[in-house]
UniProtKB/TrEMBL annotation:
UniProt keyword annotations, A-Z: Cell adhesion, Disulfide bond, Immunoglobulin domain, Membrane, Repeat, Signal, Transmembrane, Transmembrane helix
Keyword Signal listed: yes
Membrane topology label: Single-pass type I membrane protein
UniProt keyword annotation of Repeat present: yes
Domain of life: Eukaryota
Stretch list, region Disordered: 369-392, 571-590
This protein's name: Neurofascin
SUPFAM superfamilies to which the protein is assigned, alphabetical: Fibronectin type III, Immunoglobulin
Compositional bias per record (Basic and acidic residues), positions renumbered to this chain: 572-582
Amino acid sequence: KAAPYWLDEPQNLILAPGEDGRLVCRANGNPNLVNFNLKFNLKSALCFEASPPNPSREVAGDTIVFRDTQIGSSAVYQCNASNEHGYLLANAFVSVLDVPPRILAPRNQLIRVIQNNRTRLDCPFFGSPIPTLRWFKNGQGNTLDGGNYKAHENGSLEMNMARKEDQGIYTCVATNILGKAEAQVRLEVKDPTRIVRGPEDQVVKRGSMPRLHCRIKHDPTLKLTVTWLKDDAPLYIGNRMKKEDDGLTIYGVAEKDQGDYTCIASTELDKDSAKAYLTVLERPDRPRDLELTDLAERSVRLTWIPGDDNNSPITDYIVQFEEDRFQPGTWHNHSRYPGSVNSAVLSLSPYVNYQFRVIAVNDVGSSLPSVPSERYQTNGARPEINPTGVQGAGTQKNNMEITWTPLNATQAYGPNLRYIVRWRRRDPRGSWYNETVKTPRHVVWNTPIYVPYEIKVQAENDFGRAPEPDTVIGYSGEDYPKAAPTDVRIRVLNSTAVALTWTRVHLDTIQGQLKEYRAYFWRDSSLLKNLWVSKKRQYVSFPGDRNRGIVSRLFPYSNYKLEMVVTNGRGDGPRSEVKEFPTPEGVPSSPRYLRIRQPNLESINLEWDHPEHPNGVLTGYNLRYQAFNGSKTGRTLVENFSPNQTRFTLQRTDPISRYRFFLRARTQVGEGETIVEESPALLNE
């Protein structure tokens, strides 16, 4: 059983004058409908049976057919259906209107679309009779429909793929018998936003400065917005990050920076994105849970649990130890093992109270040390080695200081470590002296000047002595040499160098180890009048036992004084007799300056100063010059001047070219160093 229900509920109908139409009212129910009727014009509530005949309206069952409707035929039609279980009632408005076309959309719309995207131009319209709508582009051509265009009944024009050539002004025209209406829509096709170089997956070390690229190409007429996401959430750009036009730089990257980074480039019309994963390599976590097993007299097994490698494989483990007798609290490297192991047998020394810790190493760096292991004490024994680096040398002329490198905590092997120091003159008949000390130093006093000694240093503890030590040769203190070189002779080689010869001192007078002969010299005066000179003392060393040498870098045309000494580890011996010698003339240094002035286009004025070091009697100046213009140069011209002349005026033959000048002073030995200057460029060049 069922109350009435609609199969086709009547709908409002709008008709134009002279137009045909249909109004349907269809219902059903169970049992069958016992009352089904249609009424119109609610004001009079007339049934069709009671209404006067109307040729423009015909009832055919559940349908009313309208033909050639006219103004004034508007009415409200009511449909009622009922049975014993209920009823239905619906009203439908039939309006006969006479309306010219109207465009319902805003005027002069602007539609922007990304190239190659689908788009739609809307042109809603109204009119009675229903207008015909057509689209035109740029006011020309045929109606747009077909191909890339599809016109819909509701007035919309759809484009499957917007191209650059589709840009323009589109006009929609609605037409019926009463007139027409039109509207324009401007379409702009924009370049798509594309990330041409996006971020790439990176593996970086902690503290480095990775850069995530995001280079974007977009339509310049659209406003671009670039945002970054980290792990799909907005990225906070703090002090360690710098957002730039083409990427993101992270300064001092840390473990918390690891994750997915997404660059999103968006405009008001479209967007593009690119993603990359940043892996941060950290130093490994510290090893943990150290355990000592297999305890033996000279070995122990150490086992540990590795910490997290933090994305960079562990390459090595460093085992360190600390002992509490010699250097408590100081950790020393014991051994190194590959990163693939977590257990090692450690070699031990006697009489050490060991404590161990482990450090993990990867390509980024070293972990923090592990928590130390428990302590393990080994038994004592006599030393197996003696001190190294034994040497004897005098610090004063009547002593010899014996020093050595002491044994460390793993070499002592027992309590009360001490050193037996033995020495004697280097003479098989000499007697040995000895002294037992605990510090790595012993001074022997009242020794002859610079004589050789045989020295031994042996380690000893409460368990016994080390093996017999090797013998080392040392020397007592030096004294200043007692004699000076004699028969010093000087031979002039050139204006800046002399050759020396001398008679060497007797070795007995050196009172130490001969280091070098040394020549002290100074410039006493210049052979030119009224020329001030520096008398600063200088020296040249001649290492070893030799009797000749060369003193160079002297000033020409000068008076020099020279004296010689022999030198040992203590210092200089007495000075030899002072020798005087002159140096011959040389070539002068360059003039101090060369100034160029151009008072006009016809002449060039030159002015210069004398050389700082004439190195002899000046005999004149030589000036060479040539015109040049770009890469082209003229022939070289030469002028010679007297030693007192310091000015020259050149009459130009070429008002356009510049000039290059080469000026040198000369003595009777020859021309000296050159100063080069160029005339300035003319303002009208």
